[in-house]
Design a protein that fits this description.
Structural class: alpha/beta
Shape: globular
Strand content: 15-25%
Largest sheet: 5 strands, mixed
Strand order of the largest sheet: 3-2-1-11-12
Distance between the termini: 13 Å
Number of strands: 12
Radius of gyration: 17 Å
Helix content: 25-40%
Number of helices: 6
Length: 256
Amino acid sequence: MSEQFYDIIGDTHGCYEECLQLIRTCGYKNGIHPENRTLVFIGDITDRGPDSLQMISLVHWLVYERKTALYVPGNHCNKLYRYFKGNRVVINHGLETTVAELHALSQDEHQLIKRKFMQLYEQSSLYLVLDHGNVVCSHAGIKRQDIGKNGRQIQSFVLYGDVDHQSTKKGQPPIRRDWALNEKRTMPWVIYGHTPVISPRVFNATINIDTGCVFGGKLTAFHYPELTFSTVSSNQPLQVDKFNSYEHEETIDDYK
């Protein structure tokens, strides 16, 4: 039995109130769990939702002050990082909501949030290998053959998923391949998000826990090593068209 206990939280996208509720549901008080569990945020903590800046402050506080959380970046985190660096980025696909929040701040407040986020991003790992290699956390997933590797292709996959660039039409959202289909049903567990699903999608010992909180779904935590879930309902309006479904699915009970 593992001696390391984690509560892995899916894409929050600025849903600060739901995140606070979920953390409390997981048993944390003032950012600390009585059984020394660790929170893991799997990226995309900002954009689209109402409170992206509070999410940055919360995750930074948990990681650096409480030291009870870990964080890996997502594609939205990468884009915000490039924005803060002064790179030319198109302010769309949710970044506009975070930028609007930033514009409402004083210069000192803006610099403080920027410093917090830059520290989070620059000191984060691209993906996390936990519990002696038994569980891996990344934003959009990772093929088991690539665990332990880095490089541009790995970074692209971890942040954006397995994108079919050739089939994607100009001006349309990228087509994401179902990479979990070709994985073997073996350890380690791969826990990820990025693609909204109505309920956690379990297949070949991979679990997508992005249950679309910002689109009116739920915010989900996966508890490891118990292999259980906790969820809270979203405060946002439901957008049914934002969710994905898969033909191939299993249940977590298949692994118990």
